[in-house]
Amino acid sequence: MAIEPVTLSGRHVELVPLAPAHREALAEAVRDGELWRLWYTTVPAPEAMAAEIDRRLGLQAAGASLPFTVLDGPGGRPVGMTSYINIEAGGPRLEIGSTWYAARVQRTPLNTEAKRLLLAHAFERLGCLAVEFRTHVMNQASRRAIERLGARLDGVLRHHQRLRNGTIRDSCVYSITAPEWPAVRANLDWQLAKPR
């Protein structure tokens, strides 16, 4: 499984390789909703955006991640970040995670199409057996969004991570398997085709 930087484009979103040049626009995007203030997430604060970009690019250099900047439509402004993480080349399988979006684009076709593009690339180009999603057990909005995609709950990793505020995160682990992908794809395409 060759995980290399790639641009994935749709009608509502474009996913481009993360770059230091995106720092200012991403710092502006994260202010929309003050996402870093949510205690159960690990979204970077505006002043920490450069360090977060460096961290993600370091993980990419180590072969552990493939980070993207999320643009509001092809050639649009940065409105968030997402990544392939927990890459297991032997499976192959990976997780779509470390995702955040500006409040103004949450629950819009942008997220649905971003996941559609990432899933298609993972299953159809990279040959993944399964794709995971993980979120804090308390993050109900994220859990509902993952379930709307068609992912199934595999279980809860209890006492999985320590968060920056000192609390312990229980992580809900969801997945979509390769045999499930055609039905999930059809559902995502149907959702994207519905009039808004």
UniProtKB/TrEMBL annotation:
GO terms for molecular function: acyltransferase activity, transferring groups other than amino-acyl groups. It comes from Roseicella frigidaeris. InterPro entries: Acyl_CoA_acyltransferase (IPR016181), GNAT_dom (IPR000182). Keywords: Transferase. The keyword Nucleus does not apply. Pfam families: Acetyltransf_3. Residues 13-179 form the N-acetyltransferase domain. It comes from the Bacteria. This is N-acetyltransferase.
